[in-house]
Design brief:
The complex is a heterodimer of chains A (about 240) and B (about 800). Chain A is of the alpha/beta class. Chain A has one domain: Rossmann fold (3-Layer(aba) Sandwich). Helices cover about 25% and strands about 25% of the residues of chain A. Chain A is built from six helices and ten strands; from the N terminus they run E-E-E-H-E-E-H-E-H-H-H-E-H-E-E-E. In chain A, the strands form two sheets. In chain A, strands 6-7-8-3-9-10 form a six-stranded mixed sheet, with helices on both faces. The relative contact order of chain A is 0.19. The chains are: A alpha/beta (about 240), B alpha+beta (about 800).
Chain lengths: ~240, ~800
């Protein structure tokens, strides 16, 4: 496992002064309040914080699902904050892999087909079978989501996310719906993918136990980054517990 | 302010939220209610009015004509067991001369007793008075004819009675039960301007036609338990020596038969169309309610957990169903009443009744409401019972994930169908809910069928016009002589102004018998190489009339149980009683009436009276029509003239107007059903798959790609619905054509490819618009919210 970030390369993401304000009627919620950060190529980060601290909002904006109220998000120098719907769709399609707490698999497609769904429209994908093998599911390819356990479903979601060889893999509470043993298997899959594909990986969690597997850890509080720590020595997911 | 229970508030808000889907269902229900009220209301209006009018005017039960029967026969007819009243009359067709009208009109002169009212077929006096005895130039005329010409009591017009022109003064405007639907000779639809019924005193007509102490027409009413067939047989035997042409009853009476056809059509409409709409609305209610209950599963669990009874919850959803139904019934009742009044007004134009009121009795509305409620609740039952059966603890947990079958892909390694994963998603969803897919497909097929059922009339009528007027009876006019003439008369006809060609014909009433079956009809005889008016075989080819033997229309042959090669016994109604066996040499095609054809030579031989002709069919130079009309009106030897060209134009005009109205109605109905089915289907799909579709958007699929999943699924059902719709439509059309079939006429079942195409295009168009309305919602999917929630 690499222990140092790759220094000379420019950052994948450069976020500065990012603010997001939600308005519902007269109520104004400041979900992000001036966030600055960079994500480097190939690094694995963990974003920690209680619910409502702004980490998911940041991930949505970085992933091209939402737009900031103020501030700038640059992906390899390209400004995302002013991009059109069409440009954001293309950005997600070409560069981002998502993993969610509730997997978001298509129930009418098998594991293999859920991955193929994405590889069919990707420019330079790996074979769906290879992606599934990477997460240890080569024997479950023709199963439907309803026939898979939660952990298996999440690994299919990871295979689906990485099969297009994304530049960045965004995971929102990937272990949130899983018990700890299954959660560790999923984290191992993520670490392995990060290692083997070099995709910049960001994992959102409110589970502090996970922090040790990352290169860097950002802690969120009230829409700001309260701290950023660098793990000089990372641990393997199997050594994590919660 | 009314205070609603909390559940009722939820109900009101649910309805407000589901307004578009609810309205789409309510509109489908409204169509059912509307057609039910319209068809049943019109049926009742016609049935009740007809019964009352017939009763009041003592419309006959049995009718017969003769050439000349002595009045003394009347007592013998009255003595037949079962006869309650007899009226003998003199009835003759005449040519009318009306100022300002070039073409000759035809009139039917009918005698009324010199004193007192007729015992049978009384007149209903609209205005003025009946003619007074001793005033030979007074006449009462029927209302439709009077209105067409603006005649009022005191006005006058010319008529050629037995060759002599007389000026008649109108004394009164009447309605007759015999001419509720007044069709002139050679016409297929009423032409009020060219056909009039004129009632004059018996004494006047006896003098004019040299019929003192004689009659040529008789009508009977029967007592309640009379054996009608027996009466008709006895009447036939009494009239036979006097040229009797065979008794017939009401169902073969032209005017009543047309009324019956209309009633058959209305009853068919009441029986077929409302159930289609009710079935579809039941299905739609089921679809929307099942989805609502699935979405509210956890709410239902909670309600049960806090102590709401199953009954309360069932009633809550039943109320939602009933609210939608009430809106549907209300819209349908208003539309049905409004259209019903329009329909009654339309009937007013075609049928001469003293009154015709569209029935608006409350029971009709009550029935419509009850059947609609019943259909809606039947549709809701399954969904509601699902809600009732849910144990509260289970309800509060999310439902088990939906299992699918690995159709459309094969194994991940082996053979694969060339479908993208997006297409496979759509197809698997279709197969996962086969009943719903089948019903949605059927629901989309039914409007296609409905359109074919209404549009096919265009094709059939076109075909009829082509067959009747362009292949068979191609003459511009048919002249019928006052009395049969020698063959020389054809030369006189040829010399009439404007006549370019003339062909003679002979017509003889005759009774045909085969075994115990018999029919009295008219045998029409022409020259073998007749070209103006031709006899068509069943493949619409012209037949050269054989030198011997008889050709019958297939329906007549069927009545008599005859097939080509059989011998049929023919007895001409000339009073001689001679019976001759004649071979049936072929079957012919006929859409109007029961027909029998022979060559003139054969009929002349059969009659034993030498060569006689009854009239001529002529082709006329259009530019000299006026001269011909003038000449015909001055020619006593010509008793009547039927103008085929004018008949055809009138027929086309009437049919096109009627078809125009019905097409507007049916296209609207079809569009409403399609919208109801497709819009609801798409909304349900979108609701069920919002999470999947939003996920696809998150993964970088465009709105167009995501919509494709939705549209593929709808598209497959809509496309499958087309051939199914054609098939059902053809079946319906066949039923309609069968329903119309009578001895008087039949409608051929002709459905041309453009009819299938147009029906499909209307439904495809409506489906596309409905789907695109829902498609816009894909653009508004909330991508972030679905990622944070479970299914």
């Amino acid at each position: 496992m690499r222990s140092e970030p790759i220094a000379p390369a420019p950052p994948i993401f450069a976020v500065s002064g990012l603010t997001k304000v939600y308005r519902t009627g007269d109520v104004e919620v400041r979900a992000l309040n001036g966030v600055d950060l960079t994500l480097e190529a190939g690094e694995m980060t963990v974003m920690l914080g209680p619910s409502g601290s702004g980490k998911s909002t940041l991930l949505n904006i970085v992933g091209g699902l939402d737009r900031p109220t103020e501030g700038s998000v640059k992906f390899r120098g390209m400004e995302l904050s002013g991009a059109s719907d069409r440009q954001l769709t293309a950005f997600r399609r070409d560069h981002v892999g998502f993993v969610f707490q509730f997997y978001n698999l298509i129930p009418s497609l098998t594991a293999w087909e859920n991955v193929a769904l994405i590889t069919e429209v990707a420019a330079n994908p790996m074979a769906p079978g290879d992606a599934l093998a990477l997460v240890g599911l080569e024997s479950r390819m023709s199963h439907f989501p309803a026939q898979l356990s939660g952990g298996e479903q999440q690994r299919v979601a990871i295979a689906r996310a990485i099969a297009k060889r994304p530049d960045v893999l965004l995971c929102d509470e990937p272990t949130g719906a899983l018990d700890s043993a299954t959660g560790i298997i999923v984290l191992e899959a993520l670490a392995r993918v990060n290692e083997e594909t070099g995709a910049t990986t960001a994992i959102i969690t409110h589970n502090a136990g996970i922090r040790k597997i990352a290169h860097r850890v950002f802690s969120f509080l009230d829409g700001r980054i309260a701290s950023c720590e660098v793990n000089e020595t990372r641990v393997k997911p199997s050594e994590v517990s919660w | 302010m009314i205070s609603l229970s909390m559940l009722d508030r939820k109900l009101v808000r649910d309805l407000a939220r589901l307004w578009a889907q609810s309205l789409a269902i309510a509109l489908v229900m409204a169509c059912g209610v509307m057609t039910l009220i319209l068809a049943m209301g019109a049926t009742r209006a016609l049935e009740d009015t007809r019964a009352a009018f017939y009763d009041r005017t003592r419309f006959g039960d049995v009718f017969a004509t003769a050439t000349r029967a002595p009045e003394s026969l009347k007592a013998e007819i009255a003595a037949i067991d079962g006869v309650s009243a007899v009226e003998t009359r003199i009835v003759n067709p005449v040519i009318l001369e009306i100022t300002g009208m070039a073409e000759p009109a035809t009139g039917m002169l009918i005698s009324i007793p010199d004193h007192g009212e007729p015992a049978v077929n009384r007149l209903y006096l609209r205005s003025g008075r009946l003619p007074e005895p001793g005033r030979p130039d007074e006449a009462a005329i029927i209302e439709a004819f009077a209105e067409a010409h603006g005649f009022q009591p005191g006005d006058s017009f010319g008529v050629l009675i037995n060759g002599r022109k007389r000026q008649l003064t109108v004394t009164g405007i009447t309605l007759s039960p015999e001419y509720v639907y007044a069709i002139g000779p050679g016409d297929m639809v009423p032409d009020q301007k060219r056909f009039g019924v004129i009632h004059m005193h018996r004494a006047v007509l006896e003098g004019a036609y040299d019929m003192k102490g004689a009659f040529n027409n008789v009508s009977l009413t029967l007592s309640r338990n009379a054996d009608k067939d027996e009466v008709m047989a006895r009447l036939d035997s009494l009239l036979k020596p006097h040229g009797g042409t065979g008794a017939y009853d009401r169902k073969d009476h032209m005017s009543d038969a047309f009324l019956d056809t209309e009633l058959t059509q209305l009853r068919g409409m009441a029986q077929v169309i409302p159930p289609i709409f009710l079935f579809i609305s039941a299905f739609l209610v089921n679809m929307i309610l099942s989805r609502l209950i699935a979405l509210e599963r956890e709410q239902i669990g909670l309600l049960k957990a806090v102590g709401y009874s199953n009954l309360t919850i069932a009633w809550h959803y039943a109320k939602l169903t009933l609210m939608i139904s009430i809106v549907g019934v209300a819209i349908g009742a208003v539309a049905g009443t409004w259209l019903g009044q329009g329909m009654a007004a339309l009937y007013g134009e075609f049928y001469s009744f003293p009154f015709l009121v569209f029935s608006q009795k409350p029971d009709l509305y009550a029935i419509s409401m009850l059947v609609t409620f019943a259909a809606a609740l039947a549709g809701a039952a399954n969904a509601i019972s699902g809600a009732v059966r849910l144990p509260p603890a289970v309800a509060m947990r999310p439902p088990a994930p939906t299992g699918y079958h690995s159709l459309f892909s094969g194994s991940s390694q082996g053979f694969r169908l060339p479908f993208s994963q997006l297409t496979i998603m759509a197809l698997r969803h279709l197969v996962r809910w086969p009943l719903r897919t089948a019903l949605t497909t059927l629901g989309t097929a039914l409007p296609v069928a409905l359109l074919i059922t209404s549009l096919f009339a265009f094709d059939s009528v076109d075909h009829m016009i082509d067959t009747v007027w362009f292949r068979a009876d191609r003459q511009d006019a048919t002249l019928t002589f006052a009395a049969q003439a020698s063959e020389d008369a054809i030369r006189d006809v040829s010399r009439l102004p404007g006549v370019m060609a003339a062909e003679p014909f002979r017509a003889e009433a005759a009774t045909l018998r085969h075994g115990h079956r018999s029919r009295t009809i008219q045998i029409l005889a022409s020259d073998p190489d007749t070209d103006i008016s031709r006899v068509l075989d069943r493949k619409f080819g012209a037949i050269r009339l054989p030198p011997a033997g008889l050709l019958l229309s297939d329906r007549l042959a069927e009545h008599l149980g005859l097939k080509p090669g059989d011998q049929v016994e023919v007895e001409l109604s000339d009073g001689q009683g001679r019976r001759v066996l004649v071979p049936l040499v072929g079957l012919t095609n006929s859409y109007v009436g029961l027909t029998a054809h022979m060559s003139r030579e054969a009929l002349d031989r059969l009659s034993g009276q030498g060569v006689r002709i009854s009239g001529a069919r002529v082709l006329v130079d259009d530019s000299r029509l006026r001269e011909l009309y003038d000449e015909v009106k001055r020619t006593p030897a010509i008793a009547s003239v039927a103008l085929q060209g004018v008949s055809r134009e009138r027929f086309q005009a009437v049919i096109e107007e009627n078809i125009g109205i019905s097409i507007t109605i049916y296209v609207s109905l079809a569009v409403i059903i399609t919208f109801g089915v497709i819009y609801n289907s798409a909304r349900i799909q979108l609701s069920e798959r919002a999470r999947e579709l939003a996920s696809l958007r998150v993964f970088g699929f465009t709105n167009a790609e995501v919509s494709r999943v939705l549209l593929t699924e709808l598209g497959v059902m809509v496309v499958l619905a087309q051939p199914l719709g054609w098939l059902i439509g053809r079946g319906f059309a066949e039923l309609v054509a069968k329903g119309f079939e009578s001895d008087l006429f039949r409608i051929p079942l002709i459905i041309n490819p453009p009819t299938y195409a147009v029906s499909s295009l209307v439904v495809l168009g409506a489906a596309l618009v409905s789907a695109l309305i829902v498609r816009r919602r894909v653009d508004r999917l909330d991508l972030i919210r679905v990622l944070k929630t479970r299914d």
